[in-house]
Specification:
Layout: E1 2-3, E2 12-15, E3 18-28, E4 36-43, E5 49-55, E6 59-60, E7 65-76, E8 81-86, E9 89-97, H1 98-105, E10 112-120, E11 126-132, E12 136-143, E13 157-162, E14 167-171, E15 179-183, E16 188-194
Antiparallel strand pairs: 1-6, 2-3, 3-4, 4-5, 7-8, 7-10, 8-9, 10-11, 12-13, 12-15, 13-14, 15-16
Length: 196
């Protein structure tokens, strides 16, 4: 069990009988009141984000969230599923509903290894409930509006499309064929890794 001040970002807890990831936490004390921990929790089953305040007397059970290395193979939009295989055994193939991982797939190229989050449900089945992305990923720019000469000094941005379909704001000097680094937590461009 975690006490109220141990509920920190990147920990997994049970909240209302559902596994949740702590996205944000802030322990605060207002004048004479006892301290509280204001948190933002993402339900790992539904994806919903809720705000919850933990008081000094509150405790939270750690969620039994495991990890497993998998390889992303491909997605089928019509069937609403993404196909993976166990990284250690390519014959062990399985699908995950797209609505569970749609946001994550914007950062993953086909045939890439990624960590899957697993959870044991009430029926004692080990199910995949999401993916644990690296903090940054490098992706190829496939579409970019042309840079306007003389406009690079203003520090403006333009929207480019990456090989996974993700769109991000980048500086004007980014072109088709460049490889850029993207922060997966914020969905933002961080730097150009390779010039076309």
């Amino acid at each position: 069990m975690l006490s109220y001040n141990e509920i920190k970002p990147r920990t997994y807890i049970m909240h209302e009988d559902q596994p949740c990831e702590v996205l944000e936490s802030h322990v605060a004390r207002k004048q004479q009141n006892k301290p509280v921990n204001k948190t933002k929790l993402r339900n790992l089953i539904s994806g919903n984000v809720v705000e919850h305040t933990f008081h000094v007397s509150d405790k939270a059970e750690e969620a039994d969230v495991g990890r497993k290395m998998v390889t992303y193979l491909f997605a089928q939009d019509k069937k609403n599923e993404a196909w993976f295989c166990a990284s250690a055994d390519k014959k062990d193939r399985f699908s995950i509903p797209l609505d569970v991982i749609t946001q994550d797939l914007k950062y993953i190229k086909e045939n890439t290894d990624v960590e899957a989050l697993t959870y044991t449900n009430k029926e004692d089945e080990r199910i995949i409930i999401g993916l644990k992305l690296p903090i940054t990923v490098d992706l190829l720019v496939t579409e970019a509006p042309p840079s306007i000469k003389g406009n690079t000094a203003s520090g403006g941005t333009k929207v480019v499309t990456l090989e996974t379909g993700l769109t991000v704001n980048t500086p004007f000097h980014i072109n088709i064929g460049d490889i850029v680094r993207v922060n997966t937590e914020r969905g933002e461009y961080t730097e150009r890794v390779e010039k076309a």
